[in-house]
UniProtKB/TrEMBL annotation:
Protein name, UniProt field: Tetratricopeptide repeat protein 38
Gene3D superfamilies with a match to the protein in the record: Tetratricopeptide repeat domain
Species whose genome carries this gene: Mugilogobius chulae
Highest taxon, organism lineage: Eukaryota
Similarity comment: Belongs to the TTC38 family.
InterPro entries with a match to the protein in the record: TPR-like_helical_dom_sf, TTC38
Keywords, alphabetical: Repeat, TPR repeat
Length: 466
């Protein structure tokens, strides 16, 4: 990609998004970073994120939006907590101080405010600030994308969809990256169960940009939620060369591919994807999305009766350093899957106790506020299941059914907890739980007809409780 194609000071001004810097190079590098963020891709021709962020910092060390995008991306990545990471915490403070000392635009000031709120775990108020920006500047893609990610972390599905819907009319085909809004909107549609519309919008996006990995990912979700397994497998395979170039989302798309195999009961094929793609990428990238996908895949396979203990031990080396992060509940429950699987009871206990401690005085942190009602009982249910206390697991999980959405993630990712409840109910020695398990399977069959996994579990339930 040619650096000259990125927007300089004048180009940003012409779009109604003026930047408080006189450095054209800083403006172009900001654009280069934004491009890669939206495309989920380290662009090698630019030296990837790292080189662009470094060039951005060199071009204008005091460029407030440069600090906003650089620190904001690290925060939204959730791989480290500003509560524990002094360097990240200082980066947030520095951005706030820079903003105070300069005459910047109201839009830039709101960006700084949103980033600071997000760093404090106040995701709802951060989103309010980003929406405030979008009200006057609907083409501010950084505000749109940061809000999209934060809504995702809160499980705020309708807001995630509507946030994109509101700005769509302001985006014209000639605008840089306009086609990527199709993938963003499609994701919001599918998370609010508009599956046919979601697929249509994603395919429109792919007809414009065939390598939009987020739009591919939206179609993968639709096939997953409708249990259209063979269609999903074919779609991922046909487009693999297009989407695997997005190194930041490739592992997640392979995860979707593996889910189809688990659905079909083809465990070896799922394990093969885990070994060759998911674990390999997770080890190299250290990215949180890659890590939680690896955790989730092993847990699902284990529920299906597949032996994965050795793989858990390997993965534990990567997840264990994050046990005290507590940035999102979604991440926490995934780390717990691995410490349980690796039979490291000390780490499992530490993770739960750390969460309990933070839940006592959560302050403005939305995730810590949710810990008491959802996060902690969810962790306890997983621990009971691990101990073979299935009826206790049901007692903890069943009341949470409609609250689990609040830990964030997608319907497909959270489906693991529906499966966990069904497995717990089927295995429980309480006859009411067993009956509940069969009812949940009937319900699952009604909304996802022709699911091979549902059929398998029905057979198991009937065989156990004749």
């Amino acid at each position: 990609m040619n650096v000259s194609s990125f927007r300089d000071c004048q180009a940003w001004r012409a779009e109604g998004l003026p930047m408080s810097t006189t450095s054209n190079e800083a403006c172009k590098m900001y654009d280069a970073v934004l491009n890669q963020y939206v495309k989920w891709r380290n662009d090698d021709s630019l030296g990837g994120f790292e080189a662009c962020l470094s060039a951005l910092q060199t071009a204008d060390p005091n460029f407030v939006m440069g600090h906003v995008i650089s620190t904001g991306l690290e925060l939204v990545g959730t791989t480290t907590s500003p509560r524990l990471n002094e360097r990240l915490s200082s980066a947030v403070k520095k951005t706030v101080e820079l903003a105070k000392s300069q005459d910047i635009t109201p839009r830039e000031r709101l960006h700084v405010q949103a980033m600071q709120l997000f760093s404090q775990g106040n995701f709802p108020k951060a989103c309010d600030a980003w929406e405030d920006i979008l009200l006057d500047h609907p083409t501010d893609l950084l505000a749109l994308k940061f809000a999209h990610d934060a809504y995702f972390y809160m499980g705020a599905q309708t807001r995630m969809r509507d946030s994109v819907a509101r700005v769509l009319p302001h985006w014209k085909p000639h605008m840089p990256m306009s086609s990527y809004l199709k993938g963003l909107f499609s994701f919001g549609l599918l998370e609010t169960h508009f599956y046919d519309q979601a697929e249509k919008v994603a395919l429109e996006g792919l007809s414009l940009v065939p390598d939009d990995a987020w739009a591919v990912h939206a179609v993968a979700h639709v096939c997953e939620m409708k249990a259209e397994v063979d269609k999903g497998l074919k779609f991922m395979e046909d487009r693999e060369n297009d989407w695997q170039v997005s190194d930041m989302l490739a592992s997640h798309n392979y995860w979707h591919w593996a889910l189809y195999f688990i659905e079909k009961g083809e465990y070896e094929a799922a394990l093969s994807i885990y070994d060759s793609q998911i674990f390999r990428r997770c080890k190299t990238s250290g990215a949180m999305l890659d890590l939680v996908d690896a955790c989730s895949l092993l847990y699902r396979l284990q529920m299906e009766g597949v032996f994965v203990k050795d793989r858990y031990r390997e993965l534990f080396q990567i997840s264990q350093p994050h046990a005290d992060d507590h940035v999102t509940l979604f991440n926490d429950v995934h780390f717990l899957m691995v410490s349980l699987g690796a039979e490291d009871s000390g780490t499992s206990r530490r993770l739960l106790e750390g969460l309990q401690e933070l839940a006592r005085e959560p302050g403005e942190n939305q995730q810590h506020q949710m810990a008491k009602t959802v996060g902690i009982p969810l962790c306890q249910a997983m621990m009971e299941f691990d101990q073979g206390n299935y009826s206790q697991s049901v007692d903890l999980l069943y009341p949470l059914r409609y609250q689990v959405v609040n830990i964030g993630g997608s319907d497909a990712q959270r489906d693991l907890f529906n499966q966990l409840l069904i497995h717990s109910a089927i295995k429980s020695d309480n006859t009411r739980h067993q009956k509940l398990g069969r009812c949940l399977l009937v319900e699952r069959d009604a909304v996802r007809p022709n699911s091979p996994m549902t059929q398998r579990l029905m057979k198991t339930a009937l065989a156990l409780h004749v």
